[in-house]
């Protein structure tokens, strides 16, 4: 693979609170190449979103990011707000879960889209409207000409998310960060929206970060996967390896917690306990209290993200071997 | 599906919402649930699936009389409770409890956990003394896996998964016969969702619960349900045992729903084609004439746009409402 478009090195994010600081992201390093979909899997509070909010300078005001995030060699974390505006306007776009809260309910689709196009691409009114129409057709909004003049509430959830994607494309980004883009959508619509994202990725050579809790979404789109737990990457590798031959007990546990229509019906094997909160002291493996394979060393020593088995990387002192786990069968 | 004396049975339930069009025009009607029949025996789970707006939640509200039905009969243990007076209904209401989607939003933030769980007892069994009440609360907490020392905490001190356990404890403290779960695990994280599903299975065995499990997640429904009902625009399009429905879905909508579910196996996903249904759910205020699915159905025939297909029992015991399925049997 060529030079990665995004190269994140030792990123940490902490939030100052009235009591102790909360560490949301702890020393995360990752890369995304052009034309690649990186799946980022984790549960709420794992830090999967904050990692990528930090890149765009979108952390809440009490949040602080340290480390490096190189986009095309430029460290986003060292930029001034003004410089960051330029990057967000030209290279990076975000799509979020709930399109209704991201769209202005008082303005038509056309008015919101042309505002961006005039700003980012310097188009005049007619040019911006033509481009908005082209973008809506690009994301296969049926009857796009009519929908340009619709208000957000007149569109279904799936249509709104397509409008959001079209808007995200208006600055011709090279990196698209999609945070739970289909979670609020019905199943029949989810698969359509995912395939539009994949088509754009292919045709525009976009780098896509797909943040989700849904292994099915990852399986459909992602080339590579990172699994995030309590602010750290616990497993990283090709989608096929991580999903079919998970080596970290947390990844295996997540997969065994998810029933799959394509597999024979088997009992779910939930992970016991609950994830730690961000104020927990960080010693040893953060998953240790919930881990069935934990031993003494796990309480004391942080496992590094290294390739120990299975041809990919895991942060675990006692990784599972390939025959012990599998996506469809779960842990037996 | 047969009319059992024990458990829940619903016969041709219809629920319509009036849509106000302003002061001087006649209100329109939104037919949210149209002639839905179902039955759930004790110890069994009926999964209700369909997309947003299909009437799943309204159906639950109608059964519990949170929304007044316009027609049909709801029977609980053989009694037609939909015909009851409000006072009579209050007496059977404790036997039917509900668990909601958003656990934190459904718990009063100013009440301690023990008081939240005790509230149904205060309402429905006011004769209980403090000690007896506490004993029942502690028993419910134990059943859902909450530790006794959590009794004096407030909801915000709990994660979503623990909060949902509180919601379930509140629902089972009266030892109901029917539990209605409306997207009860949808807002939970994957690992916590599995815990709650396993908990529901355990509680069903312990208490002999009949469960109405409403969900948009077909994989979860296949896991938890014994029977499955598929709703589209307020109508039952297919109703079958779990194994029959997932092995051999017959209605084109059921096939599309199942065909849209993603697998966590990347190899399967690479070969997975999008089901051929265009567009989105039509407006329930102005539903298409004939079959409600006719506007999106890949197999649509002229008759589908004219006549609503009746729900017909098939050779394998499933019920399907589809002209094309019937026509294929005839040839």
Short description:
The complex is a heterodimer of chains A (332) and B (331). Chain A is α/β, with parallel strands linked by helices and 332 residues long.
**How far from one another are the termini of chain A?**
36 Å
The CATH homologous superfamily of the largest domain in chain A: P-loop containing nucleotide triphosphate hydrolases
Task: Say how many strands of chain B there are.
Answer: 12
- Biggest sheet overview of chain B: 8 strands, mixed
CATH architecture classification of the largest domain in chain A = 3-Layer(aba) Sandwich
**Measured distance between first and last alpha carbons of chain B:** 28 Å
How many DSSP E strands of chain A?
12
Helix and strand content put the structural class of chain A at alpha/beta
Oligomeric status of the shown chains? heterodimer
Strand order of the largest sheet of chain A: 6-7-8-3-9-10-12-11
């Amino acid at each position: 693979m060529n030079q990665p478009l995004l190269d994140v090195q030792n990123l940490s994010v902490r939030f100052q609170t009235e009591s102790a600081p909360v560490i949301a992201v702890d020393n995360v390093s990752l890369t995304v190449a052009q034309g690649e979909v990186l799946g980022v899997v984790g549960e709420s509070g794992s830090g999967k979103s904050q990692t990528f909010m930090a890149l765009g300078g979108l952390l809440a005001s009490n949040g602080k990011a340290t480390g490096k995030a190189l986009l095309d060699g430029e460290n986003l974390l060292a930029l001034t707000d003004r410089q960051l505006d330029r990057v967000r306007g030209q290279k990076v776009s975000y799509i979020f879960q709930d399109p209704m809260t991201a769209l202005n309910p008082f303005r038509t689709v056309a008015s919101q889209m042309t505002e961006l196009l005039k700003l980012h691409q310097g188009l005049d009114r007619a040019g911006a409207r033509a481009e908005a129409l082209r973008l809506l057709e690009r994301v296969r909004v049926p009857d796009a000409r009519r929908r340009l003049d619709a208000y957000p509430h007149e569109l279904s959830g799936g249509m709104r998310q397509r409008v959001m994607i079209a808007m995200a494309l208006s600055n011709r980004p090279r990196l698209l960060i999609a945070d739970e883009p289909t979670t609020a959508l019905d199943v029949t619509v989810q698969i359509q929206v995912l395939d539009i994202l994949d088509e754009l990725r292919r045709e525009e050579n976009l780098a896509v970060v797909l943040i989700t809790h849904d292994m099915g979404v990852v399986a459909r789109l992602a080339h590579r996967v990172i699994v995030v737990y309590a602010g750290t990457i616990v497993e990283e590798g090709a989608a096929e390896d991580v999903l079919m031959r998970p080596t970290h007990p947390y990844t295996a546990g997540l997969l065994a917690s998810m029933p799959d229509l394509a597999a024979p019906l088997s009992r779910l094997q939930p992970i016991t306990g609950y994830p730690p909160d961000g104020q927990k002291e960080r010693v040893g493996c953060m998953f240790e209290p919930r881990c069935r394979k934990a031993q003494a060393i796990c309480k004391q020593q942080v496992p590094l993200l290294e390739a120990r088995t299975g041809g990919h990387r895991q942060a675990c002192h006692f990784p599972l071997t390939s025959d012990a786990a599998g996506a469809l069968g779960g842990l037996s | 599906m047969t009319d059992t004396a024990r458990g829940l049975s619903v016969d041709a339930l219809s629920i319509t919402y009036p849509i106000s069009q302003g002061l001087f025009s006649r209100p329109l009607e939104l037919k949210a649930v149209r002639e839905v029949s179902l039955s759930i025996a004790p110890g069994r789970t009926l999964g209700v699936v369909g997309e947003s707006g299909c009437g799943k939640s309204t159906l639950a509200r109608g059964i519990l009389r949170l929304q007044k039905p316009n027609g049909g009969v709801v029977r609980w243990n053989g009694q037609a409770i939909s015909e009851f007076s409000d006072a009579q209904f209050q007496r059977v209401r404790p036997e039917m409890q509900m668990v909601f989607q958003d656990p934190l939003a459904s718990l009063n933030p100013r009440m301690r956990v023990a008081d939240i769980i005790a509230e149904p007892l205060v309402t429905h069994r006011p004769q209980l003394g403090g000690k007896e009440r506490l004993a029942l609360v502690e028993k419910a907490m134990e059943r859902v896996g909450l530790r006794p020392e959590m009794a004096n905490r407030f909801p915000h001190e709990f994660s979503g998964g623990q909060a949902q356990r509180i919601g379930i404890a509140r629902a089972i403290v009266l030892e109901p016969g029917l539990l209605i779960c409306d997207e009860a695990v949808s807002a939970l994280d994957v690992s916590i969702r599995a815990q709650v599903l396993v908990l529901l299975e355990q509680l069903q065995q312990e208490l002999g619960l009949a469960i109405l499990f409403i969900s948009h997640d077909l994989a979860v429904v296949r896991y938890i349900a014994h029977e499955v009902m598929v709703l589209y625009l307020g109508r039952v399009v297919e109703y079958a045992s779990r194994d029959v429905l997932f092995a051999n879905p017959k209605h084109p909508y059921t096939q599309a729903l199942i065909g849209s579910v993603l697998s966590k196996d990347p190899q399967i996903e690479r070969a997975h084609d999008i089901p051929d249904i265009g567009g989105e759910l039509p407006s329930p205020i102005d539903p298409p004439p004939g079959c409600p699915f006719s506007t999106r159905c890949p197999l649509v025939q002229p008759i589908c746009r004219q006549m609503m297909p009746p729900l017909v029992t098939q050779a394998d015991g499933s019920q399907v409402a589809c002209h094309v399925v019937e026509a294929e049997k005839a040839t």
